Amino acid sequence: MIKVVLLGSGNVAYHLALALKCAENVELIQRYSRNGTNTNFFDKSIPHVTQLNLLESADIYIIAIKDEAISEISSKLKHLKGLVVHTSGAVPINTLSSNINRGVLYPVQSLSIKQQIEFNKVPLVIEAEDDVNLQLLHKLASKISKHVFELDSVAREKLHISAVFANNFSNFMFSCAADLCKKFEIPFEVLKPLILETGKKIQYMDPLEAQTGPAKRNDQEVIEKHLSQLSGDHRKIYQLVTAAISKTYQHKENNHGKKL
Amino acid sequence: MIKVVLLGSGNVAYHLALALKCAENVELIQRYSRNGTNTNFFDKSIPHVTQLNLLESADIYIIAIKDEAISEISSKLKHLKGLVVHTSGAVPINTLSSNINRGVLYPVQSLSIKQQIEFNKVPLVIEAEDDVNLQLLHKLASKISKHVFELDSVAREKLHISAVFANNFSNFMFSCAADLCKKFEIPFEVLKPLILETGKKIQYMDPLEAQTGPAKRNDQEVIEKHLSQLSGDHRKIYQLVTAAISKTYQHKENNHGKKL
Q1: Which residues in chain A have Cβ-Cβ distances shorter than 8 Å to B247?
Q2: DSSP letter string over A91-131?
Q3: Selection from B245, B253, B166 nearest residue A233 by Cα
Q4: What Å distances lie between residue A145 and A109, A125, A149, B234, CA to CA?
Q5: What are residue B193's phi and psi, to 5 degrees?
Q6: Beta bridge partners of A49
Q7: How close B216 gets to chain A, by Cα (Å)?
Q8: Cα B131 to chain center, whole Å?
Q9: Helix B170-184 vs helix A232-255: angle between axes, to the nearest 10 degrees?
Q10: Closest residue, chain B, to A206 (C-alpha)
Q11: Parallel/antiparallel/unpaired status of strands A26-32 and B26-32
C-alpha cells in the first residue's frame, strides 16, 4: 500500500485526487489546501486540512500548486521523511528544498475541473534523485496511468518547448481562424469539426503525412489570393508558416529525387 | 425522392456515397469514375459506369474529383438537365461550365477512405445560382448532414483562408513539435493526448479562453530559455507567434482596464 498526501486545490489536484482514490494499493490519506478553495468539488471522504503542521506521515507527498509557490511550500516540508514531488512541466526538480527527498510527477495534459478525462490515458513524466525513490514514484504513477515516462529536468524543459508548439501555438492558430471568421462574418462553428479531426488524425498519423493545403502544394496563385485578404499578425503568420511548410515539402521531394 | 449521380472515386466520393446510400428520400442511382479506382471500397449495389455518355437522368450530379479537373469534366456535362455541383472549398462556382445549372456542395472536413466518420456531423457549405436550385441542394444536404450553411464563392474563399489556419497551420505546429521531439530525443507519443485535447477543447470553449502558456503570461524568463534551444524556422515561428499571443492578451487586459 502506498500512502499519499495531496497538496493543492486546483485543476491538477482535482484530477489526481480522483485518480488516486480509485487506484489499487494506493491510499490517499489526506489533502491539504491553504484556504479550502474548490472544496465542494473534492471527494468528502478524503480528510482535509488547511495547516501544514497537521500533515500525516506518508510515502509520497504530491504538491499540485502554482509554479511560483512550489519553492516556498517545499521549504516548509523539510521535516517530512517521505518523497516530495511537484507536478509542474516547467519547474526544475531542484526548485524543491534541498533537504527533502525530491521528485516530479508531471501530467502532460491540459486539465480542467470542468472537464472529465480518462486519467489512465494521461502521460505522466516522472523524475527522482535516486533509484529507490524513482522506483517508488514509478510504482505510484503506473497505478494511475498506462503511460509513464522517466525524464530528467533538462529533458522535461525540452518536452515543454515541444508542448508549446503542440498546444499553445496550435491553439493560437484556432484563435486566428476564429478571429478571421468574425472579421469575414462566417460562423466559426463551420470549422469546429475540422479542428477536432485535425487533433484526432495525429493519434494515428505522422503530422508530416497529415499536412494538406496550398502551402504544401506550393500553390502560389491561392497563396497570393489569401495574402491579399490578410493584414497585421495574420498576414505575417501566414507568410512565415507558409514559407516553412513549402520549404519542408520541397526538401522532402528533393530527398526522394522528385521535382524541386 | 431526389435522384443523385455521383462522379468520383476518391476520399470525398467515398464518404458521400456512404451518406447518400443511407439518406431517406434520396436515391443514389449511379456512380461514374473514369478508371474505376478504389472500386472495391464502394458499395457494389451502386451501378457504376466509366463513360460520361452513359450517365442516367438525375436531379443532382455531384462532381467529387480533383480541383484542377472540375472545369474540364463540367464542359462535358452540358447536355444534362439536372443541377451539377462540385465539392471543392477553393474553386469558385463559375469554374463549372456556364451552360449548366451550377452549384457547390463542400464538406468542410478532412476526409479519408481509411477513416470512418459520422457524416451527419460534417458541415456542408452550399451554393447555387437561383432559389429553386438552392432549395433543392439544401434539401439534399440536410438529408445527409445536420449542419448546412449557405455561402457564396466569395465567402467560401474566406472560409478557406480561415481553414488554412485552423487545419493546415495547426497541423504544422504539431509537425514542429514532432521535429523537436526527434531532435531532443523525447518520444512524441508523450504529446499525443495533449494534441487530442487541444482540438476537443475548442468544441465547447472559445480558443481565446483556451490559450495557456508562457507567451500568454508574457513570461520572458521561460521564453528566453526556450529561444536559446531553438534555431531556423522553429525559432522564427516561436518568436513571431509568441509576440502575437503576448500582444493579443496585453490588448485584452488593456481593454479590461488591467495592467499593460
Answers
A1: 233
A2: S-GGGS-TTSEEEEEEE-S---TTS---GGGS-EEEEESSH
A3: B245
A4: 12, 10, 10, 31
A5: -65, -35
A6: A32
A7: 9
A8: 25
A9: 60
A10: B175
A11: unpaired
The answer to whether the CB of B123 falls within 8 A of the CB of B147 is yes
Tell me how far CA of residue B35 lies from CA of B6, B10, B64, in angstroms: 14, 12, 14
**Cα–Cα dist B190/A150, whole Å:** 11
For chain B, the 3-state helix, strand and coil shares in percent, each to the nearest 5, are: 50, 15, 35
Tell me the chain A residues in contact with residue B193 when contact means C-beta distances shorter than 8 Å: 108-109, 121-123, 147
User: Residue A23 — left, alpha, or beta (φ > 0 → left; ψ -120 to 50 → alpha)?
Assistant: beta
pLDDT over 80 at B144, yes or no:
yes
The DSSP secondary-structure symbol of A189 reads G
Closest partner CB to B237 (pick from A158, A187, A241): A241
Spatial separation of the C-alpha atoms in residues A71 and A196, rounded to whole Å: 38
Chain A residues with CB inside 8 Å of B169's CB?
173, 176, 237-238, 241
Amino acid at A217: R
A25 three-state secondary structure:
coil
Q: Among all chains, which residue has been given the C-alpha cell 514559407?
A: A243
Could you read off the pLDDT of B212-246 as tens digits, one per residue? Answer: 889 998 999 899 999 999 999 999 999 999 999 99
Q: Which long-range contacts (CB under 8 A, 24 or more apart) does B175-178 make?
A: B175/A207, B175/A208, B175/A211, B175/A248, B176/A165, B176/A169, B176/B233, B176/B234, B176/B237, B177/A162, B177/A163, B177/A165, B177/A166, B177/A207, B178/A206, B178/A207, B178/A208
Q: What is the number of alpha carbons within 13 Å of residue B57 lying toward its C-beta?
A: 1
| Cα A128 from chain centre | 19
Q: In this predicted complex, what is the ipTM?
A: 0.88
Report pLDDT for B260: 33
Residue from the list B149, B172, B181 with its beta carbon closest to the beta carbon of A211: B172
- What number is the average pLDDT over the span B169-197? 97
Contact assessment for residue B234 and residue B179, using Cβ atoms and an 8 Å cutoff? yes
Strand pairing of B101-107 and B83-86? parallel
Count Cβ–Cβ pairs < 8 Å, chain A vs chain B: 298
Cell of B62: 455531384
**Which residues of chain A are modeled with pLDDT < 70?**
251-260
Neighbours of A40 (CB within 10 A): 7
- Biggest CA–CA distance in chain A, Å, is 70
- Is there a contact between B151 and A199 if contact means CB atoms under 8 Å apart? no
